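hey so u asked for the seq, here:
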Amino acid sequence: MAGYINRSLKKKLRQNIKDYPVVALLGPRQVGKSTLAKEIINKHSRGVYLDLEKPSHLNQLNAPEYFFEQNKSFLICLDEVQRYPEIFPLLRSLADERKKNGQFLILGSAGRDLLKQSSESLAGRISYLEMSPFTLLELSAKKRERLWLRGGFPRSFLGRSETASLEWRENYIRTFLERDIPQLGFRIPPTAIGRLWNMLAYSHGQTLNSSKLAGSLGVSSHTVNSYIDILEKTFLIRLLQPFSENLKKRLVKSPKVYIRDSGLLHSLLKVDTMNELFSHPVFGSSFEGFVLEQIISSLPRWQFYFYRTRSGAEIDLLMIKGIRRIAIEIKAGKSPVVEKGFWTAVEDVKAKEKYLIAPVDTAYTIKDNVKVTSLSQFLDQFV
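ran it, structure tokens below
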């Protein structure tokens, strides 16, 4: 692996450290949280970094109050903080006692709902930031082509070869099932959640049917939903919720499910090369999920939904911010065509801005002012 890619979240992270006593940087394992935090710490005038997965670092917190007192003038970074949940009440106490910002930077591989101790103990004192794998906007034009196949995890994306990238992703999946799930405190057979993860890959971009999945796995719908909750809160799948704002329509009410990182999706499906992806039945839904995840990860201040009625009106991605509503159709072909259901759906949700995102070289406009554009061109306008 070679090369360094500057993360767009760095500026926001630095600003939040100035504005809050505690900042939580969350995201999946191996996404680059530790690398970014060490960069911040190294350039900070006074900083301390502890990796709570290392016994030697964890031992420094045998007497946490004494440690924090001795380092009270430092920005203290606690990595993999979910392994030490009992620390949160003390962080709250110190944040209140010292009454200053920039005291603690905590890193976690679980979503805020799994870090219940932090949300309960540090309410009003903590800022949450989510770090995703590499996004298109963080890459040069020459590097963007490999992102869809390899995904955005740094060691996968920057692997010296396609084989090295693939092997890293396969090891990542295995490690998550065999080590990470137990370390998060879940008593779940790795084979069970692994089978579900594979089934979700084959259902990528489809509406979630927990009953069908439960039948295939031989477990209850409740059990399936609990497994899905774990995969969602560890940033590995995304449930895109349907839009249903007081519309008198027969709507699809189940969320759509996506594997968040396209590289992990392709590994779960045993797709090793672009040629294999071109001929695979998941080709279109893979591109849809890739585009959707890039947009959502790059534009955190927007709300995102899909829209679908029982009669066939559909919008792949509906973006809402204030009074703005942007309807997006996603097509994997070079000569994309908008289907009738999109026009009906646009009228239903009253979207004024309409886009068709496809792998086109040049942007152009079609009927009813729908802008056909590439993903890069679409994202560039929000920079």
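The longest strand covers residues 314-321. The chain has 17 helices and 14 strands.
lmk if thats what u needed
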